[in-house]
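tokens incoming
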């Protein structure tokens, strides 16, 4: 395949992803229904005392949310990224752009990514390339949007299901190690919807990575999307992977000093509160915020993020936490299949309750 054929294939794929996401293809649970926060009926402080802000990558965010990696590279993505970036700037949350490989090969589409930094000059913005990217590719992606950090995505399931996808992965670890050591900004390794196990977290830690986005199952499902693109339904791969809450608990109890982002089917402020209480430092939301943005535009997305902030503040009050740091220390009860999963993995489910 020539480089321009390769890029038009990428272009088609990106359009398909946006379209199929909108058609609502997803098939797994995020497992947060097995996670409970404990209500505290007698708050010792007031709503105004609650502070959702966090410091991240040298900047202050108004709330611990990331509009996670989705788009760039197609004409439609210019408007979408503009709206997402403006909403992120107005609400004080972080944002990641979609995979930038297309713009590394075709500089004429750089603007669809660069617009994000122009619309949000002071915000936290993350670049995004494959975990198979070279140091040079990673550095150019960061430079393209003056990024504060770089996401390296792992999407093995999707690659295997795409007829044009990658089939070689053994070099990823060396690449990740080189990129983590060779870039001037922090690196975050993320899954895109199949979750990170504790084993993988350990390997990544050994590669010098200190920030992970668990990208678990229960939300956007690339196996379902790719099956649909290929005209195959009910694909067994759609249920493959670690649901977000389980992946998060595996990594959070690993004992490694990792900063965790929880992404994957988080579609309500209550699920966000549960993720933070389980040990995430930030919550990533991709599909849900994209849907709001496509349906209701920038104003609708700003209103939705403000609603999430308001509700998260309420949940903090009802748990007796003044801020995100305190929320992480509040008891969390794990029930049902999540409880069984943890036991089978040698993790004490009551460790989240005894705080
Ligand atoms: C339309 C669409 C495109 C995406 N493209 C990328 C991408 O280019 N790079 C990446 O790391 N993740 C990508 N993702 C994955 C998201 O960043 C996120 O990890 C995943 O969708 C799970 O979150 P969600 O359930 O909130 O959507 C994409 C998601 C969507 C919905």
């Amino acid at each position: 395949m020539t480089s321009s054929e390769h890029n038009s294939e990428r272009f088609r794929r990106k359009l398909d992803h946006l379209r199929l996401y909108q058609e609502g293809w997803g098939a797994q649970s995020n497992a947060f229904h097995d996670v409970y926060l404990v209500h505290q009926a007698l708050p010792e402080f007031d709503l105004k005392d609650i502070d959702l802000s966090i410091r991240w990558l040298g900047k202050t965010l108004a709330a611990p949310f990331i509009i996670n990696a989705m788009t760039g590279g197609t004409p439609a993505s210019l408007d979408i990224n503009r709206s997402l970036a403006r909403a992120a700037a107005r609400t004080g949350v972080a944002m990641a752009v979609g995979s930038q490989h297309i713009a590394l090969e075709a500089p004429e589409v750089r603007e669809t990514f660069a617009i994000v930094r122009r619309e949000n000059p002071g915000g936290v913005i993350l670049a995004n390339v494959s975990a198979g990217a070279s140091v040079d590719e990673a550095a150019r992606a960061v430079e393209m949007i003056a990024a504060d950090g770089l996401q390296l995505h792992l999407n093995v399931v999707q690659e295997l299901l795409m007829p044009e996808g990658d089939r070689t992965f053994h070099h990823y670890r060396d690449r990740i190690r080189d990129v983590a050591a060779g870039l001037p900004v922090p690196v975050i390794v993320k899954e895109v919807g199949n979750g990170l196990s504790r084993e993988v977290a350990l390997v990544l830690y050994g590669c010098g990575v200190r920030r992970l986005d668990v990208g678990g199952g229960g939300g956007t499902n690339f196996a379902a999307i790719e099956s649909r693109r290929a005209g195959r339904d009910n694909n067994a791969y759609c249920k493959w992977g670690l649901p977000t809450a389980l992946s998060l608990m595996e990594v959070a109890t690993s004992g490694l000093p990792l900063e965790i982002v929880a992404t994957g089917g988080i579609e309500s402020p209550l699920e966000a509160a549960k993720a933070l209480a389980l040990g995430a430092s930030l919550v990533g939301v991709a599909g849900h915020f994209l849907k709001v943005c496509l349906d209701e535009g920038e104003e609708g997305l700003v209103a939705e993020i403000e609603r999430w902030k308001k509700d998260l503040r309420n949940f903090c009050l009802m748990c007796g936490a003044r801020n995100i740091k305190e929320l992480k220390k509040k008891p969390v009860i794990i029930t049902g299949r999540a409880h069984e999963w943890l036991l089978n993995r040698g993790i004490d489910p009551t460790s989240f309750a005894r705080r």
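note: The pocket of flavin mononucleotide is lined by residues 17-18, 21, 68-71, 98-99, 128, 151, 153, 190, 192-193, 215, 219-220, 263-266, 285-288, 290 (CB under 6 Å).
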